[in-house]
Amino acid sequence: MSEVGGQDPSWNRWRRPKPTAAQQRNDVWIMLAVLAGAVVATVLINSMGAFVFDNTPSLVEQFAWAAAVTLPLVVRRRFPLPVLIAVGVLFVMTQVRQIGDTLVPSIALFLAIYTSGAWEHNRTVARWSRVIVIVGMFCWLGYGLLDFLVDPGPGFEGAAGPLDPVLASVLYNIGFNLLFFLSAYFFGNLAWLSARRQAELEQRAEQLRFSQEQNMQGAVVAERVRIARDLHDVVAHHVSVMGVQAGAARRVFDRDRELALSALRTVESTARTAIGELRGLLGVLRAEQGERDGADKRPDESHPASPGLAQVPDLVPVAESAGLDVRLGVFGDPLPVPEGIALSAYRIVQEALTNVVKHATARKVDLRIRYLDSAVEVEITDDGRGRAAAAPRLPGSGFGLLGMRERVAVHDGELEVGPRPDGGYRVRASFPVRNDDQSTSDSREIPAT
């Protein structure tokens, strides 16, 4: 006899957990209920004199046998195999002693076979132990039927069916016992499979919950990285320019008040620009939060739109105010560039110019925007320290290049950063842009003014 249903190979080694305290208490109540049923059945059968056997022992001995065959059920889930063996042996002994009640011992045997199939950890042992017990019971049944065939005894005077009474009695006993034992075997396996499937569902639910938590944590981390990157790009550039201008104003304050005032005006203008961009960033974040909450909210129209390639020329005078000679060149016909790519390109240019101001000690910067057939590129080169610029020395630095890589990776682009062979440093970012109708044209260079 095989197990009911197919087994998932990944769960072949599953073992049912030990019974809980509540289940063990239920076993006690089940044992008491079966024992009470045995006592009542024994009293009624003895009172009626409806004995199955001729030589029935005393009422006290029948009570003792009834208690012996039912008491093991109290530990049936903790020790299913010993209980099966004990109840099977005691069941045969009650048959040998010819006690009056045979129904309740049969119920106890049914529960023992069922429990072995439902709770025994070793499935091979569970299978063959039940098979051996069932075969043994049929052998005992066969012995009883042979004895009955030798001496049927009286009791068939009123038979009126089409079959021989003795044959009908044999077929009835065989059919009843087949149904009895196979039901105990089948429902025991079914209970074990149900418990295993429940455990599998609980594990999958736990895995799903863990996966959802991981995804949520990943989304939170990604959101924090994005906000940190945007804040860095907005603040670092303007603060760097403000620092350079404030330092210049401090150095020339006593000698050239007009130049110092000009530098301070640049600081003031840059601070206002930084505040405006911060407000725009916060407006975007609030708008995104409103969309997540399902609210019908619109960003504050006073917040400026996200900068893009069209605003790159605005970075030139800010960099020049820090003492750089910036030359801007635009090559190819401008493409319709997605807003996210345009913003990333703008931020990379902004960060590259900031690094030049902070680290390169350069004098000239060549800034180029190239519109290609299927991509847009920005390239920033300078005549500064080259390799030294690749390793900023300021505390907390190093996030700029990381932010560039993240922005390019989001759009499946390419980033090249490093010193040039003839000196200086180069940053080149390429973003793929799909535009089937775009046609190339002659390049043109626009010097910055």
UniProtKB/TrEMBL annotation:
GO molecular function: ATP binding; phosphorelay sensor kinase activity; protein dimerization activity
GO cellular component terms given for this protein: membrane
E.C. numbers: 2.7.13.3
Database matches in CDD domains: HATPase_UhpB-NarQ-NarX-like
Top-level EC class: transferase
Catalytic activity: ATP + protein L-histidine = ADP + protein N-phospho-L-histidine
Superkingdom field: Bacteria
Membrane-traversing stretches: 28-53, 102-119, 131-150, 170-193
Keyword Transferase in record: yes
Region described as Disordered: 290-312, 415-449
Residue stretches making up the Histidine kinase domain: 347-435
Record's keyword annotation contains Transit peptide: no
Biased composition (Basic and acidic residues): 290-303, 415-425, 434-449
UniProt entry keywords in alphabetical sequence: ATP-binding, Kinase, Membrane, Nucleotide-binding, Phosphoprotein, Transferase, Transmembrane, Transmembrane helix, Two-component regulatory system
PANTHER family in the record: NITRATE/NITRITE SENSOR PROTEIN NARX-RELATED, NITRATE_NITRITE SENSOR PROTEIN NARQ
Descriptive protein name: histidine kinase
Organism: Prauserella marina
